[in-house]
Amino acid sequence: MRLFRRAEVWIPTRFGWLLVLGLPTLTAALVLVGVYSALTVNAPVGSGYLVVEGWMSRTQLKAAAAIYREGAYGAVLVTGGPIPEETFLKQLYPDKVSRSEIGVEQFTEMGISPVVAVSRPEVGKDRTYSSALGLRKWLLNVGDPNPSVDIVSSGPHSRRSWMLFEAALKDVATVGVIALEPIGYDPQRWWTTSTGVRSLISELIAYGYAKFLFYPNPEVDIEKLFPKEN
């Protein structure tokens, strides 16, 4: 009874080892370089309404103000949800109810006019989509026969915002998007900071959910979000 036997074993050559070890490294490098570009998109319409997501920083709002001044937009619309009680933001703006109202005040201080707050109710999930539904409601109430909007968002959030606003504004408006440079990390070297890693990974997961697991129905969803007004 033998416990061992001779067998022929194939092992990589030097070139083979180079491929075995190099391909995963190359793939990882391509992902690191490409994921930010994949999630960040600029495809503006260039006219109509400039729609700014109200959760962005003041620095980004200043950049949006510059875009408005240089563009051919009729007004700035600021989206956003309620300000949570007992927060620093609420202490700074005790007379404001929503982030969209804070955005309006900041744009007004910058000399931007006209600027309108387009608020949404508090929601536990799908906040971007809910903000887009608030914009749908506003546009329908205004009665513009052929509106167009450019959504101003932050870096890698822009592709998801564009997709969700397009879904919410289906058959209502033409939707473009403008991506601003994110705050807190270098977008070309996002993997070198914890802020960049958290932002890109969370945004990649959120985009995957919105793309493959989210099934919007704007006509039904808007009734649920604004039950008393529809």
Count of DSSP H/I helices: 8
The best one-word shape is: elongated
Helix share bin? 40-55%
What value does the Rg take, in angstroms? 23 Å
Q: How many runs of DSSP E, i.e. beta strands?
A: 5
Average pLDDT, all residues: 92
Task: Please give the alpha-carbon distance between the first and last residues.
Answer: 84 Å
Helix/strand-derived class? alpha/beta
Strand order of the largest sheet: 3-2-1-4-5
- Low-pLDDT runs: none
The largest sheet, given as strand count, sense and whether it forms a barrel, is: 5 strands, parallel
- How big a fraction of the residues is strand? 15-25%
H/E topology pattern: HEHEHHEHEHEHH
How would you describe the overall organization of this protein?
The structure is a single chain. The chain is α/β, with parallel strands linked by helices. It has helices at residues 14-39, 58-70, 88-92, 99-109, 127-142, 158-168, 194-212, 218-225; strands at residues 47-53, 72-80, 115-119, 148-154, 174-180. Strand 4, helix 6 (158-168) and strand 5 (174-180) form a beta-alpha-beta unit. The chain is elongated and about 85 Å long. The relative contact order is 0.15. The model has no long low-confidence stretch (mean pLDDT 92).
